[in-house]
Amino acid sequence: MSSATTSYGWEWEGLLRAWQELDVPEGWRAEITEGGVTMTPPPGNGRNRIAHLVHRALGRAVADDRDILQTLGIAIRGASRLYQPDLVVVPDRELSARPDNVPVPAKRAELVVEIVSQGNARTDRVEKLWAYAQAPVPLYLLIDRYAEPKPSVTLFSDPVDGHYRRFEQVAFGEEIRLPPPFDLTLETAGF
Known about the structure:
The chain has helices at residues 12-21, 45-61, 93-96, 121-134; strands at 29-33, 36-40, 66-69, 74-76, 81-83, 87-91, 104-105, 111-116, 139-144, 152-160, 163-171, 175-178, 184-187. It has 191 residues and is an alpha+beta fold. It has one domain: Alpha-Beta Complex (tt1808, chain A), CATH 3.90.1570.10. It has a 6-stranded mixed β-sheet with strand order 3-6-8-9-10-11, with helices on both faces. Strands 5-4-7 form a 3-stranded mixed β-sheet, with helices on one face. Strand 10 and strand 11 form a beta hairpin. The longest helix is centred in the first third of the chain and has 17 residues, at 45-61. It is globular, with a radius of gyration of 16 Å. It starts with 11 loop residues before the first helix and ends with a strand.
């Protein structure tokens, strides 16, 4: 089986076409995951609040030629995946270079942020971790409200050969440092 074929035998182009043609209800997300095209309901208030706090902090650190976006489709063709992260930072030229409903290659993302909810914990912790490293996305920030023994924030970095070689994890309430180009200390007390 080629890398562009999923476990269900669907070719990447077919999955992408199906994703593009979906009539997704307002606030919902459609992603191409390990199981095919999946739908996620709108996030709750807690997740929205965390996304807002991270977005605001990033806004102070991101250069003017970068965009901080929610619900942007990013594609990992070689892994037959397409995700809509809670937040993603990409050069603004990536959006102007393609028509609406055409995903940005994930390798163009500089940072991806996922906020775990109970229903998507495995996807964010395992599947997306693997896929973002495959892309490779240089920085993956996983905000896990359901981590045991306590909620945590993990920054994965330095993707090599399909896995992240480095990670830093802090508990909610502690600070985590995002390296250049962000050069930002992210406060997590409000999470």
